[in-house]
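Ionic transporter y4hA, Nocardioides fonticola. Tokens?
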Amino acid sequence: MASLVVLAASWGRHPGHVVNALIAIFLIGAVLAAVHHAEVVAHRVGEPYGSLVLAVAVTVIEVALIVTLMVTSDKDTATLARDTVFAAVMITLNGIVGLALVVGALRHHLAVFNAEGSGSSLATVVTLAGLTLVLPTFTTSAEGPEFTGAQLTFAALASAALYGMFVFTQTVRHRDFFLPVPTGVPGRDPVDEDGDGHADPPSTRTALISLGLLVVALIAVVGLAKVESPAIEDAVAAVGFPGGFVGVVIALLVLLPESIAAVRAAARDKVQISLNLAYGSAMASIGLTIPAIAIASIWLDGPLVLGLDGTQTVLLAMSVIVSVLTVVPGRSKPLNGGVHLVLLAAYVFLSIKP
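Tokens:
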């Protein structure tokens, strides 16, 4: 509610640096609140609808930030969607996964998870990334690393189909592959008073309240993003970073709640939940954002560059190889997490100093 008050007070104005900093704090708070309430609603309605609630909430935030910057910016935003989606992939594959593995392995000797479920998640992420971020660099129908209208339509439909198939697999067909590996240690497993094998959901009243607050939070995020969009670009330019770093900022903002939740789950020896959050966020970022951006591009002027450059392609390839080697055994040492974090550090550094 406070974010809505701030939005009403700042709408249509050009605030100074101090006020922009305060607005940014409320924007981050609105993002955290939106994802928290989405998680509450998701837990109440159950699967498969629960996963869709959280994914749609996060995607609305991401698309709102991307489209707002593309519409309001007077700078070149042709690569903004690509940079943001790629940043989300690198942060999830290496940052969230790396932190979860390090925390889980250090606290419990080994980080244990279900290789079947995590392998399916990773395969979907890799396919989505390849179709939408790698192929545009090599297609020849359009000049440069861009899709033609028909190619973009195919990529959007394929992304949505892949994401839909994965959600069905995760929540209906093979749900057990994505549940935490039981530890048998008191205090670590979810509270399950009815003995159905799953943590007990919140009450209907709590879920309805969270649903209403979720709508409020999303309105605040979209509005505050529009107010803050010039400040985000100016801040990146002021510190001398390339324009593409704006995408990293957006991805970090959107994925902050998932990162915190993943680390907490790993600390409780629920690394499978951490990997579900990481790979699920990557899939949502591609599988839902690309179709939304494809639709928005009908009304947006200018080119839409999706193809990765050479450095980004190499980093993605290294991340995929390391991720496969991490997931296949079904358990991990701290070293595996450290390797992922080094890859993330390399990505951030090369984003600043390409």
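The first helix runs from residue 2 to 10.
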